[in-house]
Amino acid sequence: MNLSAKPLARFFRTTFFPLLGGALLAGCATSPTGESTLLLNSPTQMNAIGEQSFEQIKAKTPIDSGDKVNRYVRCVSEALIDRIPASYGLQSEQWEIRVFKDDAVNAFAVPGGKIGVYTGMLKMVDNQDQLAAVIGHEISHVLAQHSNARLSQQQVTSTGLNLANLLLTNRVEAGTQQALMSAMGLGAEYGVILPYSRSHEREADVLGQDLMADAGFDPREASSLWRKMAAEGGSAPPEFMSTHPAPTSRVTILGDRVNELLPIYQQARAQGRAPQCDALR
Ligand SMILES: [Zn+2]
């Protein structure tokens, strides 16, 4: 093999160091709400997987580029992103927010700062606060590194997942691709649904509701949203519910937290964090 200096430097920058970083960071970690969790992949790897998955969704789902709808979704998302605690180190992240023209009641966020909201979800929510509950929940899955945890679990049980390959060639086998997408919570697009676990759902609920209150969205609307989502379901539950299963206790838990969160919400409003995204609808 005849490697000149330049490609070699690039190899170290783009492949060797990220992999080394991954190996050093790998192992047991503690989630934001204190659960112990196995994380085998570095943030660099997870961001690359998130970005690639997002590109795939964009390639196969029409994007709604309407001004009004994009301003509305951006208004809610940015108010939440602004309040992500500094400890996550995501302040400087450039978040990409897309509205997909699709009747599925769905929304997602993936590592690398990507948020997708489907027009079906926008039709379902009653107001900005319910949309904030959805997006806050999704952002919280990213903050708590749930896709890394889900993927790590699959890596432990399946020897076929070769992620190094993804960073080397940007190409992976179809089976691995499905595993990656489903770990991101995007499996429904590919017929492989991997529901988040109860503990991940609880954690995303709690962190998401904290985030919405601190951003000046009414935390009471979180339980209203899930009650509505469950009722909408009937015999064919919204797509969102298949990857985000609702424990029966969810509405109660979110309702019980309201007393604790109302002062935070009121303080946010008093300090001028009073989003008026509904005016853009
Ligand atoms: Zn969820």
From TrEMBL:
Cofactor: how and how many bound: Binds 1 zinc ion per subunit.
Keyword Hydrolase included in the entry's annotation: yes
Provenance organism: Marinobacterium lutimaris
Family per similarity comment: Belongs to the peptidase M48 family.
One GO CC term on file: membrane
Any one GO molecular function term: metal ion binding
Any Pfam family: Peptidase_M48
Name of protein: Peptidase family M48
UniProt keywords, alphabetically: Hydrolase, Metal-binding, Metalloprotease, Protease, Zinc
Cofactor(s) required, per the database record: Zn(2+)
GO biological process: proteolysis involved in protein catabolic process
Domain Peptidase M48 as annotated: residue spans: 70-254
